[in-house]
Specification:
Number of helices: 1
CATH topology: Porin
Strand order of the largest sheet: 1-2-3-4-5-6-7-8
Structural class: mainly beta
Largest sheet: 8 strands, antiparallel, barrel
Strand content: over 45%
Helix content: 10-25%
Number of domains: 1
Number of strands: 8
Shape: elongated
Amino acid sequence: MSKTPLTAASVLALALGALSLNAQAAEPVGFYAGAGVGQSMVDEYFADDEDTGYQVFGGYQFNDYFGLEAAWTDFGDVKLTGGVSKLEADTLSLTAVGTLPFTDNFSAYAKAGFHSWDADVRAPEVGRASTDGTDPTYGLGLQYRFNDAFALRGEYSRFEMDDVDVDLAQIQVRFDF
């Protein structure tokens, strides 16, 4: 057997091992909390509008790769087609969060779960109508960890509400305890 393939395989194995050590970012295990602000968006036949959305969240990080997160989100007011009435919605959500560390400080995450939402429509002539439900939610994000206690996140999430999709793009801060 030639030494060249064996040497090449050894070098490749060492290089992959070194890369995987670098990818083992230490995500603090334990409780965390945070808040976010961004743009909520509805693009449906009855509404095509945006407003400022807010979110507060908390969770538990079980290990570097998995956590559970609960959040309350206010989507703001969205004008319905015609501009006379408004749709106001908020939600409580519970999601599983999978994290993929790239470096010691930088990681990506994906989340999926369910949310319990409440929506109110306000119109001058009709008054107020309310509806609610429970539907899926999911999202993707990037996180930069400044230290073991503080991280900055960018996230894009979708909240399904019956046949309506509400998207939320936001910047978040996360504090680990």
